[in-house]
Amino acid sequence: MLGKLSDGQASALIHDWRFWGRTNQIAPDGDWMTWLFLAGRGAGKTRSGAEWIRERVRAGYGRIALIAPTARDARNVMVDGESGLLAVCWRGDRDAGGNVTGRPLYEPSKATVTWENGAKAFLYSAEEPERLRGPQHDTTWADELAAWKYMRDTWDMAMFGLRLGSDPKVMITTTPRPSLLLREIMADKTTTISRGSTFDNAPNLAPSFLRAVRDRYDGTRIGRQELYAEILEEAEGALWTRAMIESARHRGPLPDLKRIVVAVDPAITATEQSDETGIVAAGAGADDRAYVLRDVSGRYSPAEWARRAIKLFHGLEADMIVAEGNQGGEMVRHTLQTQWPEVPVKIVHASRGKQARAEPVAALYEQGRVSHCGNLSDLEDQMVNWEPLSGAASPDRMDALVWAITDLMIAAPPPHAFW
User: Fold this and answer.
1) pTM confidence score
2) What would the pLDDT profile of 166-218 be if each residue is shown by its tens digit?
3) Which CATH number fits domain 17-226: 2.40.30.270, 2.40.40.20, 3.40.50.1820, 3.40.50.300?
4) What is the 3-state secondary structure (H, E, C) of the chain?
């Protein structure tokens, strides 16, 4: 039998609804508010989350938030997937008062799941954190938090709404990726942590899959993260380290800034699978140091990233927008000037490789000549996890940072730039 989990243990997962229907508890003991289940691919995170929601409904809780990276994930994984809510609940279920809970009704048009005793779950997407502003819940299941587009905004809105009843709780099921928010959740004294690897759930996975991932990824960094759920704080060959960035943290008032630029690294497309458009603002201080001020990067349409860049330009009273034009410099200029014809734009072209452009900027960090202001956690995570020799594309937030610092501290307009 599964029994009770203690802190640091992972769920044993058996895909048999009759077994699960007779299990009394899967959640860990103790006085906790957040249960963080860090596990590898195929370790049974979804099944554990769905069973926990079933457990909460049977215990009498009835106002539930289901949050996934996208609306499609909420529907296809958390509710209607092979291990989702509809798969784990059955007609004979009853709550603590003896009332039938049964197999819930899923209404896609309302984005709700309703049990026979009146308990109701509401589906949310991490792409729309504002939808969580206002609703209140006694139970939250946050699936694949590390893949959320607006991770901190969505988490904050969810936690503000987790206020009903005498014992509100949240369960996070995720394969880890390094992020400041995840580290903060792990360090919180109200968090209990369970861990599991892909191979802990081997009886329920295809042997051919297990052989393939073991042969290909065992002993690699991506295998340690995706199979064994290790949080890799920084890549071994990264140009920046956590220590370097922490030493660059600026606290207190800013000095006089001689120049401020907003750097834009535009994405070609604006779908769910697109790269982000990097939008980073930085200033050059009278003390001969650079200050990274804001990061408003994200997946935007061309008109939207242009609006956001110009809004940031006005908000900081910047001097220039520096935009990469490798995908079409005049198109980028036109997109910006469509939003504001007078915007000063400098188009720059990448004539060298990304590593060659990034190395002089990383050297400025090593010299203590760059500071970070405010919350730049997503940008910083990219900086410490990009390995130049890995062959992976450099992330767009980091690219925008490199363009901004290069313009302020390294290049008096380079010969390949044009106005």
Assistant:
1) 0.60
2) 999 999 999 887 777 888 899 899 999 998 888 888 888 889 988 888 888 77
3) 3.40.50.300
4) CCCCCCCCCCCCCCCCHHHHHCCCCCCCCCCCCEEEEEECCCCCHHHHHHHHHHHHHHCCCCEEEEEECCHHHHHHHHHCCCCCHHHHCCCCCECCCCCECCCCEEECCCCEEECCCCCEEEEEECCCHHHHCCCCECEEEEECHHHCCCHHHHHHHHHHHECCCCCCEEEEEECCCCCHHHHHHHHCCCEEEEEECHHHHHHHCCHHHHHHHHHHHCCCHHHHHHCCCCCCCCCCCCCCCHHHHHHCECCCCCCCEEEEEEEEECCCCCCCCCCCEEEEEEEEECCCCEEEEEECCECCCHHHHHHHHHHHHHHCCCCEEEEECCCCHHHHHHHHHHHCCCCCEEEECCCCCHHHHHHHHHHHHHCCCEEECCCCHHHHHHHHHCCHHHCCCCCHHHHHHHHHHHHHHHCCCCCCCEC
